[in-house]
Amino acid sequence: MFDALDFKIVRMLQKDARISFVDIAKELKVSPGLVQARFNKMKKAGLIKGSTLILNSALMPIKNFSIGIRALDSELEEVVKYLNGLEIDEVLVLSWITFGLYNISALIISKDVFQVHRLKQLIQKHPAVKDVVISINNTVYYSENVDLTRTFKE
User: Fold this and answer.
1) Top-tier CATH class for 4-51
2) Closest by alpha carbon to 86, among 128, 138, 125, 114?
3) Among 12-16, 55-59, 78-82, which stretch is predicted with the lowest mean pLDDT?
4) Whether residue 56 has pLDDT greater than 80
5) Segments of the chain assigned to CATH 1.10.10.10
6) What pLDDT band is residue 103 in, cutting at 50, 70 and 90?
7) Which residues contact 70 (CB under 8 A, 6 or more apart)?
8) Which of 15, 25, 129, 28 is nearest to 79 (CA)?
């Protein structure tokens, strides 16, 4: 069962995936063994798949673009595989299935708006894609002051 302690451990790891279990334990006032056991339990359950690098896009000479894609419901996974397999120089594509007006969202990281336009044209060529829209994200805000643990019972 995923509880408030698990959530706090995950939040700390999201901020710094290299933080030690000892440092997490000190912050949460529990034993390092408990933190390691909880981590291993979440990893074994598939909740934690690995760690990642988070870039501060405000300091990079690249921009983030959001793409909303409407595709046939029966082909969503195929379209996401197609998106993740597209290779355009200096363009990174991260995509996932969502709900709402667009059933696939993608985050595009690139410094060349023309490459992003080329990517849009490639996406539109997929037979299951109905519509594609692009937005540029100038600034991404993240608040560390939001305490989402309140939604979990202690």
Assistant:
1) mainly alpha
2) 125
3) 55-59
4) no
5) 4-51
6) very high
7) 101, 102, 103, 104, 129, 130, 131, 132
8) 129
Strand-pair partners of 60: none
Q: Under DSSP, is residue 123 helix (H, G, I), strand (E, B) or coil? A: helix
Cite the residue boundaries of each domain of the chain with CATH code 3.30.70.920: 57-137
Tokens 């992003």 found at: 116
The Cα–Cα gap between 152 and 8 comes to 10
Considering the domain 57-137 in this protein, what is its CATH number? 3.30.70.920
How far apart are the C-alpha atoms of 112 and 92, rounded to whole Å? 11
- Distance from first CA to last CA of the chain, Å, rounded? 13
pTM: 0.50
pLDDT 10s digits, 10-24: 989 888 888 999 999
Quickly state the pLDDT bin for 59 (edges 50, 70, 90).
Answer: low
For residue 60, pLDDT over 80 is answered with no
